[in-house]
Amino acid sequence: MAAQIEIHEMSALDAGTDKTSGTVRFKDADNATVDLNNPLVIPDAGSIYSYTKKLRAYMEAPPDTQIDNMRWYTDGANGFGTGVTATAKNLGVTWGANYKTLMSGGSDLFGYVVGAPLDGDGTDTGPFDSGDDDTYIGDLIELQMAVASTAAHGSLSAETLTLAYDEI
Amino acid sequence: MTLADHYKWEAEKDGEIITKGGDLSGCQRFSLIPQKAGLPRVDICGVDMVKRFARRFAKVPLGGTKLPVKLPWVQGADRIATPSDMRAHIAVGNLIARAGRTFPWHIVKEITEAEIILGAPYTGPTKEAETRLHKPVNPEEFYHCVVCKGFRLYCNAQNGHVMTTPQDYELYV
Q1: Domain containing residue B48
Q2: Angle at B61 (CA atoms; ends A162, A102), nearest 5 degrees
Q3: Do the beta carbons of residue A166 and residue A121 sit within 8 Å?
Q4: ipTM at complex level
């Protein structure tokens, strides 16, 4: 049997919304809904921050043997444009409420690339097998977007975050 | 989609057929057997095999998304009908994002699968809804990997394309 692993946007340590074929929209509200509400408004000075987003992998169907080597990465190029940045960090399995102040300890999301990915299972370590079926696996990944006064008006082009893992 | 949708694998070791696990040591043959028409079969034999695994890349768009077709808007109209052939491919959420990029968000009254309805006829300049380049995102990719002594082989599970690399090369796309 082949595994089915989903990417969920989390609302609690063990609860989230499947975003595998969806979009994670950074906004000025703490929810996973992709809508027109609560846009990030360019400030007159300084920067504003979106509510943080937390992502985690979910095992919808188990593998024959195991899953391991989970990692998250981008293409390394910030396509959001001038004045818009994104940061990320690994939270392990410690849940905390989402917030819209500057993330501490985060690094540039686009610094996480193929050769230097964000570890996805450093705390909740693999391998994951059939005993993990229908549960969240790996670590929580926290993301946040910052919009500076230098940003251009309008909506953004989408960027892509990749979750890679090995399956046996 | 799962790993087994396009290919199933099997290995042969001293006459025994193996279909589970990752250890290929001592195997004489490894095969990727297509489950869909048009995909090539891949067989490896005559080499020393070490192990196998599959690598999946799941991709999630951040910050926005682009629709693959244009929604022409006519000045003075209060709604845009979505072509029927695109409805099966576009979630309402994506349509909402599209409308948000095209119009001031506060004038959008309702968005359904079939149309975008504005609160009043739009009086701004005529334009095409969403004129920026579409950046397609393939939501997932699978590769089968067979590690042999001296090289490894990656096979794209969606199209059967094969590439060989050094034995310790880790492919990420």
Answers
A1: 3-59+138-165
A2: 90
A3: no
A4: 0.87
**Would you say residue B16 lies in a domain?**
yes
Task: Report yes or no: A145 and A49 within 8 Å, Cβ to Cβ.
Answer: yes
Tell me, yes or no, whether B66 lies in a domain: no
| The residue type at A117 | P
Which pLDDT tens digit goes with each residue over B72-93? 566 666 776 665 655 555 566 6
Q: CA A87 to CA A109: how far, in whole Å?
A: 5
For residues B44 and B77, membership in a common domain is answered with no
Could you report the per-residue pLDDT of A28-49, keeping only the tens digit for each?
Answer: 999 998 876 787 888 889 999 9
Q: Are residues B145 and B98 in the same domain?
A: no
In a domain, B173, yes or no: no
Burial grade of A118 (CB within 10 A; 0-12, 13-18, 19 or more): buried
Determine, for residues B22 and A65 on separate chains, whether the beta-carbon distance falls below 8 Å.
Answer: yes
| Cβ–Cβ gap B4/A2 under 8 Å | yes
Among the listed residues B65, B134, B59, the one whose alpha carbon sits nearest the alpha carbon of residue A155: B65
Per domain, the residue ranges of chain A are: 4-167
The CA distance from B107 to B129, in Å, is: 14
Residue B40 within any structural domain of the chain: yes
Q: Count interface pairs A-B at CB distance under 8 A.
A: 133
- Per CB-CB distance under 8 Å, the chain B contacts of A165 are 55-56
Residues of B within 8 A of A168 (CB-CB) are 21-22, 52-54
The residue in chain B having the minimum alpha-carbon distance to the alpha carbon of residue A155 is B101
When divided into structural domains, chain B yields a total of 2
